[in-house]
Amino acid sequence: MNKELNEIIKNLFNIETNAKILISNRPDLCDYQYNGTFELAKNLHQNPYEIGEKIVEKLNTNEEALKKFSKIECVRPGFINFTLTDTYINEQLNKMTSVNKFNITLPKQETIVIDYGGANVAKPLHVGHLRPAIVGESIKRLLKYMNQNVIADVHLGDYGLQIGQVIYGLKQENITPSEITLEILSDLYPKISGLCKENESIKEICASITKDLQDGHVEYQAYFKEILEISKKDIKKMYDYLGVSFDLWLGESNAYPYILDVKNSLEKEKILKTSEGAKVVVVRKENDKIEVPPLIFQKSNGAYLYGTTDLATLFQREKDYHPNKVLYVADSRQSMHFTQVFRVAKKIEETKNIDCEFLGLGTINGKDNKPFKTRAGNTPKLEELFSETKTIFLNNENHNTEYDNSDLEKIVGSIIKFADLQNNREKEYIFDIEKFSKTTGKTGPYILYTYVRTKKIIQNNETFVDNLSKTIYNVHDRGLRLKILELDEILNYAFKTRMPSVIANYLYEICVLVNAFYENNHINNLEDHEKKRDWVTLLSLTLDIIKDLLEILVMEIPSKM
Ligand code: ARG
After folding, report:
1. What separation in Å is there between the alpha carbon of 119 and the centre of ligand 1?
2. pLDDT tens, residue by residue, 397-429
3. Which residues are CB-contacts of 545 (< 8 A; sequence separation ≥ 6)?
4. Superfamily assignment of 382-552 in CATH?
């Protein structure tokens, strides 16, 4: 309807607008609302109510509008209220039931590489690793749902200083590659990285081990292979637990064979400059509001850095997949790094047509609003966090359900994932397990509980599901139906903005309305068969939608709640 509204405004007032009819916040009065009259009134120096009246007059002779709405009126001080016809609402819902993926509009298909997870090999996994995994996985699932050709790459941090540090430590303690274990690695990394902070010369040794490793040093390569193998297994275990999966298990080290190609291309474009012995690419722009430093391609000691591997990885992705887009899901604090990389990529023939997007993430904070710590004061390891969450959930309320372990894991997963995904990914959020584990409020358990309860109601009322009749029976019924009609817009908006939070919040709204629906509409004892069939049909459609949205949000459904 926005289009028609724009045309009417153009014809009446000769103004180009981007009119938007919004969901009404007074569902007792109308279904949708247009508030743009106030803005128009300012520009035209006229009274908003009179403007509204003029628009309504036109709308009420518009064929599209007449088909959809039973009432369009202007109310003081100038809002335009729209009420859909029951027939129109039910026709749309019937289409949603009968067409694949609820009849949503699917965007043009593209090939998209999505780079997320990004755990660093040989470092212990902690809470900070949750967000890039969960948000990335959810965006990947959303892209797939929206019919995109998606390739997910974990892009492990596997060739940085931490590897040199661990190799140094292993050699100090006379541990051979075949003797390395996960425990040894998790003890070693914090120890040596601490040492490097205190002792500059040890840090230099570690840096030179890293450099030699990158140059193919045979002994270091043997260490590296073992470290990678062991650490990858551990990382995989965590991602499996979270339901996070990748098509490619590549890392920074896999990009090395492409560095020479990048170098040649940079030289061809004559953009590789020498600065204090290092090779850099200047990426600053005239109108930059903040200083954008040059990307360092190669340090004066010959070592390559994070920017180099990201460019080389882009070459590799282009060669293997010709992607239209590459999305990077990582901590917002890496935004400058990606600005530099993307700007260099735009200057190179091979990569200039790839659309690169950085999808930044805010931090996960504790109740003190500082990065999350355990009660003991350290950054919690993920396994501890999972078991703590389980305990809190079980202690939280008087559960009258006995959960088996697999259901409990699904619930713990949903607590952690829904806690994260309901927040705008760019913003930090406070991790409050107590709050997130409750079965009421905006929590994973509440959503799962709603799903399981709805399913039970449908099962208890086995009537065959059919097209909806033309009737809508009351305000709770209407509210749920209207909410479901928003699905198309919600999915497309979340897709465009790469924001799983849009879906999480919508899912929560649906759940609130479903709960209100069955608290007020008792289906079980209904005598009226048509009504019963309509409501079971409506709940079935709702349940199917919840199921798909849960899938996009990486949440698994337990057998009972
Ligand atoms: N390993 C990096 C880190 O822990 C994240 C990787 C993000 N992806 C990328 N292509 N740079 O910060």
Report:
1. 7
2. 666 778 899 999 999 999 999 999 999 999 999
3. 102, 484, 487, 510
4. Isoleucyl-tRNA Synthetase; Domain 1 (1.10.730.10)
